[in-house]
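A common beginner's mistake is to predict each chain separately and then try to dock the pieces by hand. The better habit, illustrated here, is to supply every component at once so that their relative placement is modeled jointly.
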Amino acid sequence: MGVDDSQALQRAPSLAQTLAREASERIGARIAADIEPFIALRRDIHRHPELAFQEHRTSALVAERLRDWGYEVTTGIAGTGVVGTLRRGSGGAGGSGGKRLGLRADMDALPITEATGLPYASVHGGVMHACGHDGHTTALLTAAHYLARHGDFDGTLQLIFQPAEEMGGGAQRMIDDGLFERFPVDAVFGLHNWPCVSAGHLGCVSGPAMASVDQAQIIVRGKGGHGAQPHETVDPIVVSAQLISALQTVVARNVDPLDMGVVTVGSIHGGFAANVIPDSVELQLTARAFRPEVREVLRQRVPALARAQAESFGATAEVNYRLGYPAVLNHEGETAFAREVALEALGADKVEAGFRPRTASEDFAYMLQARPGSYLFIGNGDSAPLHSPRYDFNDAVLAPAATYWSRLVERYLA
Ligand SMILES: [Zn+2]
Ligand SMILES: [Zn+2]
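With all components supplied together, the output reads:
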């Protein structure tokens, strides 16, 4: 659809399309002319990263800016969450009319020791903005600033600054704290930067966009003993070796070949010497899927297989299977709208045709379970991967991201 869209726009721009394009260009020019203080702000947030539910400085900074620009600001949602509300026209004072739009940014950092060597590197040892949430927060603030001064819209804008995306499910905690009852929205959108996609290029995916992520800890218990007398033991290392191979059959033989499933054993620990058979081995694995039905297959088959496989060798397997974030399921209508806005705001050459879903996870999934919307991707250029100690958000992405957000608001709340 992306290719057709771009050709259609190039082929026969209607008057409406021309006007839309000009409006987007005006927004882009204004934001670009004012971007320097926001780059400084992004670097300031980068320098002072905070872990899940501890985003006190970041949250205070966001609230202060929004207040300065005339937003109604509510703090303390799910602890450090902030919502800035801006009403115009029929959404204005006393008015409850007009549409309501939510835009969400995440504020938390990761327990990683930064290795970028940048002048604005983290001053908090062992904590780092390695996922670009400093950039997401700043891009939404950049749009907030533009919209407060020049925003041409009618309705209610809810800017949602969320804690604890990386761990702790801050999105669900905000929803539990009455987010959508206190700040009603007809649709909600979010945006994540993506390394190795051209800087500022937008990616839209309809349907499953990111995977569910569950974890299992498996403890294989046997009977330890001397490495020279294996017949007197139940060797959990041999059992684990068989189990790891057998687990590969869950995706290969239980999941529909047309669906996506991942089972990755990422950790195995057992034993301490070449000539000693240990009593137990611990495995840790991650299980991912796009469709809830596949997620359920993995949840059933991984523990069943682990127990049966262990038993077949005279060992036992204790399985602790923990459900994490569900899959990000983008709504079709909102995604088509987001793509249309991207084409006019950024230009057809900056909208990635055929952008593919990602097998990482995102707690924005919970917001999309509660309200219609879409989770989008914006290229971070040639950068280190997310969660790498050498990663940094690309400041060149701030202006296009803020331009896109601003235009999305003006179009949705037209
Ligand atoms: Zn992350
Ligand atoms: Zn992230």
